[in-house]
Amino acid sequence: MAASLKEKKPNSRPSAPRAPSAPRDPSTPRVPRVIVVGAGIIGLTTALRLAEAGFDVTVLEQENGACEGTSHANAGQLLYDRIGAMGSPEFLFGVPKILFDSSQGILVWGLANPAKWPWALAFLRQCTNRAWQNNTKKLLEIAHRSRAGMSALNKRHSIEFDWRKPGKIYLYSTPKELEAAQGPLQFQSQFGGRDQLLSAGECIEHEPALKATSRKIAGGVLVPDAEVGDCNKFGRALGDILVEKLGARIKYGVKVLRLVQGQNRVEALETSQGLLEAELFVLATGTMTGKFLGARFEGKMPITGVKGISVTFPAGPVAPNCSVADTAKKIIMLGLGDRVRVTGYGIFSDKTDIRQQHVRLLIDKARALMPNAANFDQPQEIWAGLRPTTPNDLPMIERAGYQNLYVNAGHGSLGWTLALGSAEILLDKIMIEFGRDLPPEN
């Protein structure tokens, strides 16, 4: 059942998104040309805000459609208040267990590659409580800008993407685990948002699909303002808006081979379709960002891939209403229209290959959690994507060495949640440098 997103008054006071400009008059002087590399959710939201600000935007994508990579079949959550950085003391204390128990769903052996050691060492330095709090606070600031941006976007364009605001329930299998979750929640609550402690019975009352569960539930936490939707549908709609309403261009099936450098500037991109010139370039290239930047990437927070796997099924007789996270089994289940999606795994890897044992385990966990939620014998889609992750879990939204090259990458598992806020932050930075070249009305 599709629904368009309705405006929600934020709990914090994020910076107001810039108002979009009027459509460009072809007779006005030439405006700066921008090439955005990547038509995932980060690239598309970046392109949208740049086009609305008055830039002449072209998006390049090596796939044959929008949101066909990491954004294609992700967990489908928009969670603006109860998010946190991956690196934490709890993660560090859990490493011995996940090293020898693959059923945990977090596989770190990919970090044994010497090329990954700098990332791993930098990540370990982020696993203190102080670092977790600092990184989480910054993530929440971006998320709050995203919420304001999403509300403003929906006022301008009605987008159908199976959006709902059913809330999210975090399930805990022991009283000890439930108690341990209170510390992070108390910290996050300083920055707005709501949560509610639930007994096992109240968890089932809020989510009837849990009534037949074989999982042990000690209690849970309800985050009532959590939203769900189809990121792929949302991204494809943004692509249509860019082309049909804002006059931007999206070129699919175009592979960027290298940056053509000038005097501390990027002059053009060498692509599979020849040289493409512009005044400004933005890399929204996820895990491929380091490849494009080369030596310019040194000294910046490196990005590694953390593979997630999802399986999407036809909805069953008792499909979930809420988004439900089984914290012990490390899976998320939610309903998307007439489908149910289960998402799990955090595999440190640069490959999107899918092992059948991982799929079977994911389905078994989902079936145990909500036996009647979906037709588990008929999966519609099995997908894997690489979450581009920095050691501190904060995205890179900045100039990348050259005067006219910017990066918007490294959003980890929170790409959709952070997308519009990140686009606003990048637009602010670009306007300082390039805004004077826009027509006065912009």
From TrEMBL:
GO BP terms in the entry: D-alanine catabolic process
Task: For this UniProt record, give its keywords in alphabetical order, as a comma-separated list.
Answer: Oxidoreductase
Which Gene Ontology molecular function entries are recorded, alphabetically?
A: D-amino-acid dehydrogenase activity
Give one Pfam hit by family name. Answer: DAO
Where are the stretches annotated Disordered?
A: 1-30
Biased composition range(s): Basic and acidic residues: 1-10
Q: What does the entry list under GO cellular component? A: cytoplasm; plasma membrane
List where Low complexity composition bias occurs.
12-30
Under Enzyme Commission nomenclature, its number is 1.4.99.1
Main EC class the enzyme belongs to: oxidoreductase
Domain called FAD dependent oxidoreductase: residue spans: 33-427
Q: Would you identify the family this protein belongs to, as annotated? A: Belongs to the DadA oxidoreductase family.
Q: What protein name does the entry list?
A: D-amino acid dehydrogenase small subunit
| The organism of origin for this protein | hydrothermal vent metagenome
**Taxonomy-wise, where does this protein's organism fall, top ranks first?**
unclassified sequences, metagenomes, ecological metagenomes
